């Protein structure tokens, strides 16, 4: 029995062959135009960080009363591999690894189970424990990084404007999150006059306790009526420097105003945990994360359009600059690939025409893009 001869079949069925060539070429062009583009491929990190804090606890207490119960729950998670625990006074960090053979589609479910199972024992942890906290977003990479500066503005005003920009960027297609770097939490600093404390016989701990009690939120019950229940609230929360100055400090049977023995001022957290600067000026960085499978070139064009509107609405004195531009890097890489491809195709054409003639040379030259379209 004679086998199928593809060359003979293609020649004898020329209309169908031409149709298949056109179909494959169009499919290849469509796939190329809709192909995801990014500097780095998407990858799944099969590790999660679980942490907790308990101010004042020793490393041994953190291990026995906090880490051990959490570890037992982590060992119940599907695809569990190992957990490494680092206990220190006042805090604990646990690194959870799941098996490398875990299907990518199951990783998100594993992290959900971690949060669920650990959350179930949260009420059994000692009073005063903060957390547990979870972090599984290691695979998110900032595609574009902006720096917002405003020499004539405070850090709080800079942060407020950065939040406005963040909301505008989140409306851009393919943007999944916008992260801040270098933002400084605003604090109210209380500077106690030690000489006055000594003169009045006030212990420093009495000052600390008075501030903590004044700012404490406690349930005040509810007033039930025939139609509804009205919840009561004791409004004693500190809302500013003026309220802080009026906090009563009791000592030795006497009551003093905190403002009489201390001074106050607002300012950024000191020492700062992370600082961003641009050309010597304090700044807040905004990192834009693209959704998985997105096209970085389209994201770059959408961000340029959005940033034009943002710059038009920026108050006088604010400046925003792009300092990391992955779309430009990817566009240059794609252009370099296309240029190299065209050069290679021209070389193949020239060699084919010179050695095989123009009819055979055209067949060889057309086979190269056709094969790429099929792939």
UniProtKB/TrEMBL annotation:
Membrane-traversing stretches: 16-33, 345-372
The keyword Transferase is assigned to this record: no
Gene Ontology MF annotations: xenobiotic transmembrane transporter activity
Keyword Transmembrane: yes
InterPro entries according to UniProt: AcrB_DN_DC_subdom (IPR027463), Acrflvin-R (IPR001036)
Gene3D superfamilies the record matches: Multidrug efflux transporter AcrB pore domain (3.30.70.1430), Multidrug efflux transporter AcrB pore domain like (3.30.70.1320), Multidrug efflux transporter AcrB TolC docking domain, DN and DC subdomains (3.30.2090.10), Multidrug efflux transporter AcrB transmembrane domain (1.20.1640.10)
Signal peptide boundaries: none
Keywords for the protein's UniProt record, in alphabetical order: Membrane, Transmembrane, Transmembrane helix
GO cellular component: plasma membrane
This protein's name: Cation/multidrug efflux pump
Organism expressing this protein natively: Solidesulfovibrio magneticus str. Maddingley MBC34
